[in-house]
Sequence to fold (807 residues):
Amino acid sequence: AQTCKGGCGQRFETCSCHPTCGSLHTCCVDYRQFCLEVSPYSGTIFGGTDFMVLNATFDQNANLTCRFNGEIKTVGYVDGDGRGHCISPLLYETGWIPFHISTDGETFSREGAWLSVHPGKLDPHFKATLENSTKWQYYGTPNVGGVLNMTWNTSHVRADRVNVELWGYRETGEPYSDSWLPEWKYLYSLGKNLSNNGQFSFVPKSAEKPFSDWELGCLRVSSSSHPDGEWNVQAVWTEDHALAWHLEDRFRQDSASWALDKCLKWDELERRLPDFLSETIDCPCTLAQARADTGRFHTDYGCDIEKGSVCTYHPGCVHCVRAIQASPRYAAGQQCCYDSTGTQVLTADSIGGSTPDRGHDWGSPPYRLPPRVPGVSHWIYDVLSFYYCCLWSDNCHYYFTHRPSSDCRTYKAPKAGVVFGDPHFITFDGTRYSFNGKGEYSLMVSPERGLTVQGRTEPVRLENGTLAKATKLSAVAMKEQNSDVIEVRLGNQPGHLEVLRNQHVLSFSEQNWMDLKGVFVFSPVPQNVTVMFPSGAGVEVRVRAGNLATTVLLPEEFKDHTVGLLGRMNNDPHDDLVTSNGTVLPPSPDSAQDLFRFGADWAIVNETSLFTYDSEYLLNTYYFGPKHDPSFLPVFSVPENPDDPLHGEVVKLCAGQGSHFCSFDTLITRSLEVGKATRVSFQSHESLVEALQPVVSCGWLGPPTNGRKEGTRYLQGAVVKFSCNAGYILSGSGVRTCQVDGQWSGDPAHCVSDNTLGIVLGSVIGALVLATMVAMIVLHSRKKKHRETEHVEVKDIGSEAPTTVQF
Fold:
């Protein structure tokens, strides 16, 4: 037995078939016989997908049994070509699920992995569709009703005759206790022994208890040969949805009253449950930040600007994102929505505002217990309640009391470092330099956070087949704590990337999003890959003109905890260039040779390597060869020559910031395409850094009671104006501006009633009149007294009677 060089270093016979070690390219035939490859490799969490084993054949009479997660068994079969088939089971988790196959029902010796997918992220080709969506959502609302239609791909149900069944989901027991359990259950059949022609129509009828108590579920199409409600058989499912069309008569007769009752019960429950809002991450302040912070936020598939912004539950918005990671204790989620101006929409201003979730829509490990079950837990606690309080009755204030929008006053944007071109580096704090070493190096290491990102460089091959005296980034490998190792490298197909998980190639032909161990991977097109870790760190890898451009985004928690070629992240560019022994180079080293020696110092060793060596070239060049090749000496500069035929093109192509990067790459590779790719990578990074600039928020301002406000933007420079309803007069500031210190200018606005003001003014005026009258009386009295004291008696000579003279 030989060592599995491309994998875990164990012997072939002890290598695990589940893709945690080893590479199929370097393992022997015996290994491949027991490590199963399947097609399709993914299906809905609800189960029922028939998948075929590709690299093994079975006896026609074999009693095939498939076991998932070591506990759930489904009945398989062998087709006419000797190919084994398994049926995926109904699961309560997403991600790669290990499965084993037995031909005797006892010995499960062959192993593979199955990707269980969130129903909302499943390719529409693989699920049934319940049409007339507005009808089933609002069934029972006035003037809504009629026929509901279903369609499905007939190839996904191997039968001539089928049954259409209703299945319900609920979570029972006391929340956040050991009795809290999820339950899927068959309820009843809508149609039996139907032709498998891919369509079914029905007129919903109200259900009686206990069926009407199930308010969330799916429709399943399966072979009529199975008993009603049999588990884990080949089937196709609709997405989970509110079962409005099947509820009791009371809902149909007075949906608003029925829904209000449900809303009040939900409100009562929420008041008993623990607060989860304090541990959810704050939203980014702007749409630009939300789209740039790819380590912590990802597009909400229900409101995506790239797909036409169909924001059913967020009217007035053009794009929403969700926090990728659930909150640490309660597995809660965060959703942030933005309007066409890029402003975050808050529920205090609009029914379409951002809302946090008690149950993260994508679930959270260990997945199988509420509220961590992907999709359905979110429906139970966050979506149905929105129907009850907002869509089916006019009582949104109850909902928004428990699901208020998070503003962005405590949001801190991540810092970004990038490697691109041949290759050039811009550190987290903005230092720019080039390093053209050949080997494998530490791009970023954070021992305290357990995150490692490594890069492999190789010489650039010119169009004439010769090698240039420069290198390019050809592979990036990374992991955080005990996560899967993710490697992204140039693929065999030009312009495409290849993604490996623990040295096993991943295919994104069926799914562009994968839930893996301790990491998420998103690859919407073969040229782009984004890797997201629980810490909030994100790594974006793009291929342009045959070169990798890699951006590492780190949240503030990594401050002062990074080393490597992308520098020390601490907002101080003067100490970015630090060797592995702690020596700090000046921001502008004396020579390119000094930078070259600095880069060489960050070469990794085999013991810490995260890379895969699954070819003779990689084994000989990087595994058995030096991690930094001292014999490779690059060209450190290429002077521009006016006589060079490329000179004029370079001047036009590379004008502006970063021109030296563009010029160097164009001239060293003799390729305008490579130079353009370098320019685009540099400009993309500049745009990213600009989008992630800190933004000052002053927080939400509400309208005054009995008044109105104009303006729903609360960032620096924003102006909010206030006015009062008829019969009221404004007191306080009518205009307030968000200042640089995060405080609003002016004083709080209040609206005072005209009548109240009249009474106040009347009282004041009355008091003034009374005071004036009193003052006049007192003054008059004083004058009178004064006059009396000024009388003089004069006695006329010769007369006894005095004569009074008044002056």
User: Anything to note?
Assistant: The chain has a mean pLDDT of 89. Residues 415-634 form a domain with the Protein Transport Mog1p; Chain A fold (CATH 3.40.1000.10). The longest helix spans residues 754-789. The longest strand covers residues 181-195.
